[in-house]
Amino acid sequence: MIKEIHRKLAQREISVTELVQRYLSTIKDKEEQIKAFITITEQQALEAARKLDSEIQEGKELGILEGIPFAVKDNILTKGIKTTACSKILQNYIGVYDATVIRKLKEAGAIILGKTNMDEFAMGSSTENSAFFPTKNPWDERRVPGGSSGGSAAAVAAQMVPFALGSDTGGSIRQPAAFCGIVGFKPSYGAVSRYGLIALASSLDVIGPLTLSVEDAEIVFRVISGKDDLDSTSYDLRACSLPKEKITVGIPQECFSQGLDSEIKENMEKTIEKLKAAEITIKTISLPLLPYSLACYYIILPAEASANLARYDGIRYSPLDTELEGNDLLSLYYDTRGLGFGSEVRRRIVLGTFVLSRGYYEAFYKRAQKVRKLITEEYKRIFSEVDFIISPTTPTLPFFLGEKKDDPLAMYLSDIFTVSANIAGVPAISIPSGFSKEHLPIGLQITAPYGKDFLLLEFAKKIEKIVAYE
Ligand code: GLN
Questions:
Q1: Ligand 1 centre and the CA of 170: distance in Å?
Q2: Which class for 185: exposed (0-12), middle (13-18), buried (19 or more C-beta within 10 A)?
Q3: According to the model, what pLDDT value does residue 468 have?
Q4: pLDDT (tens digit, 9 = 90+) per residue, 411-433?
Q5: Which of 74, 75, 87, 125 most suits a substitution to test ligand 1, by most atoms within 8 Å of the C-beta?
Q6: Quick count: other Cβ atoms within 10 Å of Cβ 9?
Q7: DSSP 3-state assignment of 451?
Q8: Which atom of ligand 1 is the closest one to the Cα of 172?
Q9: Residue 335, CB-side half-sphere exposure with 13 Å CA sphere
Q10: Would you list the domain boundaries of the chain?
Q11: Relative to the CA of 147, which ligand 1 atom is closest?
């Protein structure tokens, strides 16, 4: 897809301006229903396109992403463009610098078409926690697109952009990709710089691409990844290629336990047969700690989030539109945070502050850190036996808007299969795996050892055609 657009641009079958106009007109046609965007940067995009067109006129050779439009989750900073994290507390905030991923994509010539809707501060699995409006699933507008990168996933699925950036702290790229029938890739922790990503939980957050194919995910990943002096946790990945001998894939038996939708189970069983037919060795494995990963995640995440969100105090960043009544500093803090944060964000700040408090720190936070270590070791052990792990991305099909909004625990369960990759820092990708009877997309998740991102992408490319279609 990106290669095909690139070919058309390089061969002058279409100009960059025409290309950008085409996508903008798709956005105009569909946006009223889908509501994927918070900001559309039409003028800047057209300006960038015209500039590139005149350079092409002068004989410029086009790089692979040059002139390719994309959308950005609204928690990634973009200079001069509103960046809200879909929170009231940042509703007027304009990015003062570009995140490293944005700088790299701009340098590669890609063109931003807009910023996409998300759950407030990336907390959620349906995009219904956005302070502004929910996004709809393009396959069925009564249903959620998943979250928290729901706007990015819906925009790609509805072909409003060829690719989008999301962030994944516990599944927020992979789960919406699965719900919207596209590819969503969460790189290894540190493989992509987090500089300019509005932090949710700094030890779990990763930026990654949402695309229509694995090849596209790889193209974008090659550009955005790598060591960045502005993020000390970032590093350069080593290239690697698939082993010559037969590939062994592990299927965790825990994934088939209660709570897995029967159609997803059936889909998974079919996938296993298809993989066997493709000469891939399937091995049933056990990840006994998998059921504990969600509990561990919901201690570590709120703890880190409560610290990261302390900076929104009404003094820095943008002021609320509301007139505040208090006249001392403390009431300014209280009022700003009380009015500016939505209920899910406040819930997690309270939880995070609690698990870090004296007297409870040892019982909760420290214990969760120990479980985190055990989960990481469990992955290491399994990856000494298998090359990749395969599981469903989500336990359910895309659910209805409103269905889980008032039931946080039910919402948290959406990430049961995705959070452990963040806990261990390993790379994982969701690829389309066909449809349910009602024609709702189903996702298949592939997980690889830490740092083996290119290997994962290579394997995902190999099997995407086998599993995606009947
Ligand atoms: N849905 C998960 C949560 O609410 C994951 C969020 C994310 O990956 N940003 O925390």
A1: 5
A2: buried
A3: 76
A4: 999 999 999 999 999 999 999 99
A5: 125
A6: 22
A7: coil
A8: 8
A9: 15
A10: 1-287+390-470
A11: 1
290 CA to centre of ligand 1 in angstroms: 17
**Better-predicted residue by pLDDT, 45 or 331:** 45
Q: Which residues are catalytic?
A: 73, 148, 172
- At residue 314, the pLDDT reads 86
Q: How far apart are CA 398 and CA 174, in angstroms?
A: 13
| pLDDT bucket at 469, cuts 50 / 70 / 90 | low
Among 150, 141, 105, residue whose Cα is nearest residue 33: 141
Ligand 1 contacts CB of residue 301 (under 6 A): yes
- Lookup result for tokens 């907390």: 123
391, two tokens: 């599981």
Check pocket membership of 213 for ligand 1, CB cut-off 6 A: no
- The finding on whether 460 has its CB within 6 A of some atom of ligand 1 is no
Task: Judge if the beta carbon of residue 122 lies within 6 A of ligand 1.
Answer: yes
- pLDDT tens sequence across 5-56: 999 999 999 999 999 999 999 999 999 999 999 999 999 999 999 999 999 9
pLDDT of 280-311, one tens digit each? Answer: 999 999 999 988 999 999 999 999 999 999 99
- Is residue 243 scored above 90 in pLDDT? no
State both tokens at 269.
């069983």
User: How far from 251 is each of 208, 242, 389, 429, 457, CA to CA, in Å?
Assistant: 24, 19, 6, 15, 18
Ligand 1 centroid – CA 125 distance (Å): 6
The number of the ligand 1 atom at minimal distance from the alpha carbon of 173 is 8
Which sign does the torsion angle of CA 127, 128, 134, 138 carry?
Answer: positive
Angle at CA 129, nearest 5°, toward 124 and 130?
Answer: 120
Span 374-403, pLDDT tens digits:
999 999 999 999 999 999 999 999 999 999
Q: Which CATH superfamily is domain 1-287+390-470 in?
A: Amidase signature (AS) domain (3.90.1300.10)
pTM: 0.97
pLDDT of residue 390: 97
CA-closest residue to ligand 1 atom 5: 170
